[in-house]
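>> Question from a student workshop board

For tomorrow's exercise we were told to take the sequence and the ligand below, predict the bound structure, and bring the output to class. My setup keeps failing. Could a helper post the expected result so I can at least see what it should look like? The ligand is beta-D-fructofuranose.
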Amino acid sequence: MLSQTLRDARKYEEEMERKIAKEDRPDFHLSSRVGWMNDPNGFSYYKGEYHMFYQYHPYDSHWGPMHWGHAVSKDLLHWEYLPVAMAPDADFDRDGCFSGSALVLPDGRHLLMYTGVSKETQPDGNMKDIQTQCLAIGDGMDYDKYGSNPVLTKSDLPEGSSKFDFRDPKIWQKSDGSYRCVVGNCTMEEDGRIILFSSPDGFHWKYEKILANNNGRYGKMWECPDFFELDGKGVLITSPQDMLPQGFEYHNGHGTLCLTGDYDDKTDTFTEEQNQAIDYGIDFYAPQTILTPDGRRIMIGWMQNWDTCNLHAPGQPWFGQMSLPRELSVHNGRLYQKPIRELEKLRGEEVRHENVIFTDVIKLAGVEGRKVDMELTVRAVDPEDVYRKFAVRFAQNDVYRTSVSFRPHESIVKVDRKFSGSRRAIIHQRRCLVNSRGGELKMRVILDKFSVEVFVNDGEYVLSATMYTDLAADGISFYADGKVNMDVVKYELI
Ligand code: FRU
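>> Workshop helper replied:
Here is what the output should look like for this input. Compare the format with yours to find the bug.
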């Protein structure tokens, strides 16, 4: 039986969606049907389609009581909205259905595992969120919350764990048919850790071990974990809160972290070897992955950041979009990301300019637009006299521009949206230290109206940022300080 709360939300979103013009949304990035969106949830393949749920507050363009929005897609680029799947309507989730994941049960039912939030008065008189892990079972459209919820509570946590920060279960099935899930947690001192639980059937869960400990290294609480094996490595991804910067690798505030290492499947033991940020831009958080039927590991993140997302104008009909789906691989312990190959099917006419040598600002015939897939290769004309700076500027007119620049002497790539029309004192620039040899660098720049995603050196580094620049600003230009030789291959995305 669907609750009144859920039926009200379904009616509301259906009516309000009609008021939002398609032109005002990104074309191939999933955006909130109406109101607010944050983390991707329940990313799964079910009954021949990809399902994406998301943290959702339909009634406002700011965060509020969390529902699970829902959409489906055949190619991960064109999404169709389905009715909101869950509302905070039960005792154990009355203050929010927080993030979680999904899988398909052997009997064909769709299982969602998520965090139920309910406020409880503490002995000191303060009200605090209590977080537990809950289940819902459905058919791809309607979901019933499990009768024995919650399935994991504070009593399942190891000693020293915070019962207030225990959230975002990510479930998977192992080859022996049993289930595992990782959940974000922290110690009483707010030091992040990832807890592993196991289940024979997806319904009865028990504590296994602490899969990874922060030990004070990367921020505090670790949110939205995901764990998988890829290219012979164990890969743990998580989104730490309250990070301090470390060189150019990690920046202040909410960030992303990928740990790669050795994984022993028999004992579920993960031994960390390397660490890195997942995205070096401004807007990327809480990514979640899926294993596609053809064996690809695909990741989608929330293309926003908690530190900057709450300053948009009130009354906006929707806020929040997902990143491009990214195909993951691991080389020498490093996580690489490439735009999903299905994107190439959206490519229109090709515009190609090779060996363009320039020393100042140039524009190139046929290179413009706000829905663009553009591959750039830049190199020094004279290896003895490497240029000082290269930049590509886009979403540009006389007033506005957003840019990605590269300084070969420092090996720094920077995304800069200072002139995108933002009227807020938020982060507008972010830098990333990249590998480049003698000034040679490859970049693939994807624009979808209100965002840019830059894949450097075939996905060795990625920088994502949103920009809300007027769509009339659709110019693209190139800038060189020194002598640059550049190849450009550009496609309009249709
Ligand atoms: C991460 C997060 C999750 C939580 C959700 C609430 O962005 O804070 O930890 O489940 O958002 O909306």
